[in-house]
Amino acid sequence: MRVLSVPSRAFFWLLSLLAASLLWFVSSQLRGREEPALLPLGAAAAVLLQELSRFACFRLLRKADEGLAALSEDGRSPMSLRQMAYVSGLSFGVSSGVFSIINILADSAGPGTVGIHGDSPYYFITSAFLTMALVLLHTFWGVIFFDACERRCTGGLGLVVGGHLLVSGLTFLNPWYEASLGPILILRLCTGLWAFGTAGGSFHNVLKCLSCK
């Protein structure tokens, strides 16, 4: 028995995207034009809406988990919280990655040459690395976020939301890619180690895996 498929969990991210799009449309209409100052505010609002959707996903999965546990013969759910957190985070990451890279892939088909007017020739490869980092970060954030919700740890929730806002803010430094991509990759590594520890991983388990024991 499965507790909500990957597409079902990705639907929560799509709802946050729809809400952020509607908010941006209304703000632009009220202002009469798309002011540059609206872009950072819109990005921050989109991040907060995504995290609210992640929390809604956690609450729904928690209710479903309790219902499945009540129906099972041994009184236990067929899926653990860590499994649900991983799948939910991966769903958010894949959805976010697809929407962030699809327009770039369309532009890469031409016409035009990247860097012909003095811009960075590393636009596409940098965008690929940023998308990869975002997918992994969402997966890690899902594991940490669900664990923090389960333990009612506001500090963990705050760090996830803060990290998401930081990553979103760093992308505004583009096309100064050294200032944006470097810190994001470092944050991805640190967040991955944090999620690894949260999921019960340890250096001893890594050694056992590598030694095939």
Explain how this protein is built.
Its main location: membrane. This is Gamma-secretase subunit APH-1. It comes from Sapayoa aenigma (broad-billed sapayoa). InterPro entries: Aph-1. This protein is mostly helical and 213 residues long. It has one domain (1-201). It is built from 7 helices and no strands. It has helices spanning 6-31, 38-71, 81-108, 123-151, 154-170, 177-198, 203-210. The longest helix is centred in the N-terminal third of the chain and has 34 residues, at 38-71. It is globular, with a radius of gyration of 20 Å. The model has no long low-confidence stretch (mean pLDDT 83).
Task: Kindly summarize this structure in a few lines.
The chain has 213 residues and is mainly α. It has helices spanning 6-31, 38-71, 81-108, 123-151, 154-170, 177-198, 203-210. The mean pLDDT is 83.
* Main sheet overview: none
Task: State which percent range the strand residues make up.
Answer: under 5%
- Average pLDDT figure: 83
Could you say which overall geometry the principal axes of the C-alpha atoms support?
globular
Helix content: over 70%
Q: Let me know the number of strands.
A: 0
What is the number of helices? 7
Classify the secondary structure makeup into a structural class.
Answer: mainly alpha
Helix-strand pattern: HHHHHHH
